[in-house]
Amino acid sequence: MIKMRWSTRKRLEFIESRLFWDGKISRKDLTDYFDVSVPQATKDLKMYSELAPENIHYDNRAKHYQAGTNFKPEFSSLDSETYFSHLAVSNTEKNDVFFCGTIPESYQMPLLARPVSPPILKNILECMHDGYSIEIEYQSMNSPDPTNRWISPHAISTDGLRWHVRALCHNDKKYKDFVFGRIISTGDKKKFPFSHENDFLWHNNITFRIAPHHDLSVSQRKIIECDYNMTNGEVSIQIKAASHFYLKHRLGLNKNNEDHPGKEQHIILLNRDEVETKISLLEEIEKSKISEMFQKTI
Hints:
Largest sheet: 5 strands, antiparallel
Order of helices and strands: HEHHEEHHEEEEEHEHEHEH
Distance between the termini: 53 Å
Structural class: alpha+beta
Number of strands: 11
Helix content: 25-40%
Number of helices: 9
Mean pLDDT: 92
Low-confidence stretches: none
Radius of gyration: 26 Å
Strand content: 15-25%
């Protein structure tokens, strides 16, 4: 890979994206998007032409550069997910200039704001950095009132909707995900010699094998296989074992959902027994190790 400044590579990626998705690019496209000078835009286009000559040629009549017939990406991943990611950013920031070219009429349903207190986040992050435990006031959905508890945080994660802190709960003596937005306040900090290697669900992966629902017709199964990028009728998704609940919930893979007809529940979990056995085993090992750790520490 050719070494170059990050800003230069981003402009080359922009040129390539415009050529692929829009079929053309001009110096003005570069100056408008990156706020660079015309000479700099000319230099960038010249560099791209030298590095990927088959991808670009100048149309004297149209006064812009066009994509070559033997176009092959050299600097970026020109897949649909990348396109949609740029489109989502453009919609969020309400930009008139789109990274990929002509911006299509589109709509992105807004997500509900899930506010997190910056001071609480800052305190949790400091504990993670320094290896401290912290007392929190937390409102669980399993309790009618807030409770105080000590936690030892070591990671943060998201299920796509909310951010959690992954921490050892001293009350329950197990690793749990605490929703940041449900931490009402933080209190004292202490140093405990806990090893987070004992969060076995966090440190081990688990694979979900997904397939179309058996009730679907042959044609329906084929379209589901295509929609989920399946090969030979299934797709494997590897995640941290600690995230198994969120993936099941997101994809509707809870056990009772598979009793629903295929038109309602399009996919099923092929290796449910394997997944649940591994989760149970990791939980048992974790429980034993944490019990030993507390006996030695407290």
